[in-house]
Write a structure and sequence with these properties.
This protein is mainly α. It has one domain. About 65% of the residues lie in helices and about 0% in strands. The chain is built from 6 helices and 2 strands; from the N terminus they run αααααββα. A two-stranded antiparallel sheet has the order 1-2. α1 runs antiparallel to α6.
């Protein structure tokens, strides 16, 4: 099998990987039946959740890096959002902005993106209050938002593919 090289191929590959991780997360949730998970299941859940968040960061970051050539220097996501709005694609612009915020919070934790995200009602993610985050978590910035909600990664990849199509045409 050839290594994917185009942006759409890389995004679809990330989506395929995310489905495996999501199935692992769902499997652990089903096995625990709403009860406290065994230490092994809890570890498997944590590892799959962290891997899913890192995959989302990688997919968005790869998209930004590969598509940056469409704009002069500066904040890619803001410029993409502005171009989408100017072209009348307000729904896609809103989705790009929301996913940008989620990815930014996953990467950096609290800050302006976190505060803005807390005021939105995301369908495919859950923003955690900072007082509910375990300070001993090795991946603390990844704890500020949960993306293991079914539909998050599919929505992310659909949004990135639509934005890619917009930029390339």
């Amino acid at each position: 099998m050839d290594t994917p090289q185009t942006v759409p191929e890389l995004i679809v590959a990330a989506q395929d990987n995310a489905k495996v991780l999501q199935n692992t997360i769902l499997g652990v949730q089903e096995q625990s039946n709403g009860q406290s998970a065994t230490p092994n299941l809890a570890k498997e859940f944590h590892e799959a959740t962290v891997a899913l968040k890192l995959a989302a960061i990688d997919a968005f970051t790869l998209f930004e890096a590969r598509m940056q050539n469409h704009f002069k220097r500066g904040p890619f996501s803001r410029k993409l959002e502005a171009a989408l709005l100017k072209a009348g694609h307000s729904d896609l612009a809103a989705r790009i902005h929301e996913y940008y915020l989620v990815i930014n919070v996953l990467k950096h934790g609290t800050g302006a993106s976190y505060r803005e995200l807390r005021s939105t009602s995301g369908e495919f993610f859950k923003v955690n209050a900072t007082d509910s985050i375990d300070p001993d978590d090795d991946h603390i910035s990844l704890s500020h938002v949960d993306i293991d909600v079914p539909g998050f990664f599919d929505g992310l990849t659909t949004t990135l593919l639509e934005a890619h199509e917009f930029l390339e045409n």
